[in-house]
Amino acid sequence: MSLTLLCLYTHRYSLALVMTLVLVTASTDDSSPPTNITAVLGDTTTFRCHIQKLGSPVIRMYIQRVIKDSQEIFINGFDSSRKLDVHPEYQKRTKVNRTDLSMELTNVSISDEGLYKCVVFSDTMDKEMPKIHLKVTANYRVPTMEKKCSKHGDGAAGKSCQLSCSSVGGYPQSAVKWEGLNLSLINVIHNESSEDLYSKTWTINQTIMYNCDQPTNVSCAVEGAVSPAVSICEKEPFSIEVITAIVVVLVIVLLIILVLVWMKFCRGRSSTARSGDDEEVSVAFK
Ligand SMILES: *[C@@H]1O[C@H](CO)[C@@H](O)[C@H](O)[C@H]1NC(C)=O
Ligand SMILES: *[C@@H]1O[C@H](CO)[C@@H](O)[C@H](O)[C@H]1NC(C)=O
Ligand SMILES: *[C@@H]1O[C@H](CO)[C@@H](O)[C@H](O)[C@H]1NC(C)=O
Ligand SMILES: *[C@@H]1O[C@H](CO)[C@@H](O)[C@H](O)[C@H]1NC(C)=O
Ligand SMILES: *[C@@H]1O[C@H](CO)[C@@H](O)[C@H](O)[C@H]1NC(C)=O
Ligand SMILES: *[C@@H]1O[C@H](CO)[C@@H](O)[C@H](O)[C@H]1NC(C)=O
Ligand SMILES: *[C@@H]1O[C@H](CO)[C@@H](O)[C@H](O)[C@H]1NC(C)=O
């Protein structure tokens, strides 16, 4: 039921009827779905309790955190007739604006996630706003990827690669996505999530086995964060052993040629030595 209607009724009917209507209004708002707001870890967020067309000025406003259905914690607010007791933790981190009925919360942490509600009081009525659900997110760091590739043991073509992807510092919990791979050929061998007890952020780590016979560029992603691409199963024109073998053969061939040339030279030289006495004479004359 809208407030305008409520005012109309106020003029036309008895106070008793108005009181029941107020109760009805309050319970209707209470059960309506919460408004969602999202904040990034460490940022500042604003809870807005602004009510349109509230007949008389607001004299009190409470912003409370709803822990369970019946359990609520007072966060901050104002009361035009007295000073409110605010928990020191929230005293530091919250600021209430009486003009637009909002509250700013700074340095949002993951434990701030949850349900809140505003209760607004004026001379004529109390009004409970629809609840506000604060969702907190934290961005995952750019994932790191490691690869370990080896030839198939059974001598089949292609390679078998073990790929590990890990990312830290995100919230909520998420999962690793692989890009560039045929998803139906992925074999997950290790999947791990761990929560940091202090910051409540998640570290996730997944290791897969992947067989490939085509060169592939692969990267892994966690939410918006994508690792640099890594090439797997590159075509290696010659393996180290083949190159070593070629070098050894070349060296041997070169040695044989050298030996042959040397032998030929020596044979030629010994024959000239046998038939060339003039040479020895010329040497003797020096
Ligand atoms: C708030 O988020 C919840 C899920 O987190 C969703 O079911 C609901 O519809 C959202 N409410 C609004 C008003 O968007
Ligand atoms: C309160 O909100 C109004 C309207 O948004 C703004 O003009 C004013 O500067 C705010 N006051 C404070 C103390 O932040
Ligand atoms: C924000 O909160 C975290 C703990 O939740 C604290 O370690 C950090 O010092 C706070 N930062 C500021 C600027 O207050
Ligand atoms: C993925 O691998 C499966 C099984 O080998 C094959 O049937 C399918 O066509 C492949 N998909 C793509 C996109 O290559
Ligand atoms: C890995 O763990 C995450 C979080 O526990 C889960 O969401 C995901 O489905 C798991 N993936 C596999 C392939 O088991
Ligand atoms: C992820 O898991 C793999 C396999 O258990 C491990 O080798 C690697 O060190 C882990 N990485 C991180 C950052 O925890
Ligand atoms: C992989 O990336 C490299 C460098 O960006 C590129 O030259 C190559 O063509 C890519 N290979 C495939 C199979 O996409």
From TrEMBL:
Transmembrane domains' residue ranges: 242-263
SMART domains: IG
Alphabetized InterPro entries for the sequence: Ig-like_dom_sf, Ig-like_fold, Ig_sub, Ig_V-set, T-cell_Activation_Regulation
Keyword Transmembrane tagged: yes
Keyword Cell membrane listed: yes
Annotated GO biological process: cell surface receptor signaling pathway; cellular response to lipopolysaccharide; immune response; negative regulation of T cell proliferation; positive regulation of T cell proliferation; T cell costimulation
Mode of membrane association: Single-pass type I membrane protein
Signal peptide start and end residues: 1-26
Subcellular location: Cell membrane
Protein name, UniProt field: Immunoglobulin domain-containing protein
Annotated organism of origin: Culter alburnus (Topmouth culter)
